[in-house]
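pinging the channel bc i need a second pair of eyes. not urgent but kinda urgent?? the chain im working w is below, pasted from the shared doc
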Amino acid sequence: MSTELDAELTGSDPTEVVGELLQEADADSEYYLVDPPWQYVSALAEAGTEFDESELPTLQLVAQRDTLVSLRQSFVAASRAANLVEAGTLGVRERNGGGDTPTIVADERVYAPLLMDGTGAAIAARSGSYVEHAADAAAEVWESGESFSLRTPALDRLRSTMETDLGETVRADFDNGLSTVAGQRDSESFEAVTAAVVVAAANDILHYDLSRWGEEVGLASKATFSRRKGELEDLDVVTTEKVPVEMGRPRQRLQLTNEYREMLAEHGVDELVARLAG
């Protein structure tokens, strides 16, 4: 049986293509994303933030381990995807066995996500034997997959707990820095722990309070925060001031060095975070 093709969906990038697919989606439907290119996985995480969770279909992502590890290692994409996971909208599984041609199966259509010199496109097929069996085949691949943990806190939860534990200004500064980096092409390199230490230092936050928050929210261990603080001290970005407490060892207040205080005043916290953590 021949396959009938719809017009292709094209955009300036994969995020635009995925956004258009989600815009057309029925919230009661189920989408399977089987072996999508990494760019489309990142695009799914970004485009999903533009919708209320109640507007989205159930999204079942099953991909090769290297693709999912790339997702986990990109804080920007992983934290956005974790929002969808916590909302029950997105499931993530590691594919068992060899890969297939990348497909997105949804609403009696099969989309083939494409990349053409950085431009995104998706060809949609809506009839034929392949389309008729695609949903069952995708469901089978999904069922045989293994659950994959992003090991990244959901961005909404990170923001809300940061505001509660460290203050509204710290959360706003972190948001501003993240937004600047997220708009850059190499946003996958964003280092969230470095950003948190820099923002905390810009606001004279105790290292103890920062590392406790970071460990409790699942961003990183206290040891990781201490290592990153030490690295930034070695680079003369951050310094500390001892703060006496009633019992126990004095605690350390994070501060920027004079050089970076001047940079903060001149360029703003978003540019400072982009330079140091982007």
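so The first strand starts at residue 4 and ends at 5. and The radius of gyration is 22 Å. — does that match what u expected or am i reading it wrong
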